[in-house]
Design brief:
By secondary structure, this protein is of the alpha+beta class. It contains four helices and eight strands; from the N terminus they run αβββββαββααβ. The chain has a single domain, classed as Electron Transport, Fmn-binding Protein, Chain A (Pnp Oxidase, Chain A, Roll), CATH 2.30.110.10. The protein starts with 17 loop residues before the first helix and ends with a strand.
Length: 150
């Protein structure tokens, strides 16, 4: 399936629980409830599921620099990359909702130089990312840059 054929307006959301509650609040209030989560900004990333031909939505903590959005594929310190990251490596065209704004973006894994700069920014926003890095070893947690499509 090609990304243009995906029903981006009706993505699959997380399983029932706090993440689903977060996504539903975010969507139903256009980000007024949910953009800030535990004091940090979050966005909703929608990727094309590489195995099931459907759009999947995930809430993520983000940083921002020069109009680009930065996220970490920490997966809570899991030993393998989260599904959303594996999806966007197969299909880098994604949809973002940042607050009330929704738009198409292109995802890519940061270069080693970008990673060095942005890792510090992301752990300053959410210090538990350092715990995730220790738990995930030997896996290196990918840092992802999301740029609005033109």
């Amino acid at each position: 399936m090609h990304a243009l054929d995906v029903d981006w307006d009706h993505p699959t959301d997380p399983h029932p629980g706090p993440r689903l509650d977060h996504v539903r609040a975010y969507v139903s209030t256009a980000g007024a409830d949910g953009h800030l989560w535990h004091g940090v900004r979050t966005l909703l990333l929608t990727t094309l599921d590489r195995t099931r031909d459907r759009a999947v939505r995930t809430p993520l903590i983000y940083g921002e620099d020069a109009g680009r959005y930065i996220v970490l594929a920490s997966g809570y310190g899991a030993l393998e990359h989260p599904r959303w990251y594996r999806n966007l490596t197969a299909h880098p065209e994604v949809r973002l909702q940042v607050g009330a704004a929704a738009f198409t973006a292109r995802a890519r894994t940061a270069t080693p130089q970008e990673r060095e700069v942005y890792w510090e920014m992301m752990t300053a926003l959410w210090p538990p990312f350092e715990e995730d890095r220790a738990a995930a070893r030997p896996r290196e947690i990918p840092l992802v840059i999301l740029e609005r499509a033109v």
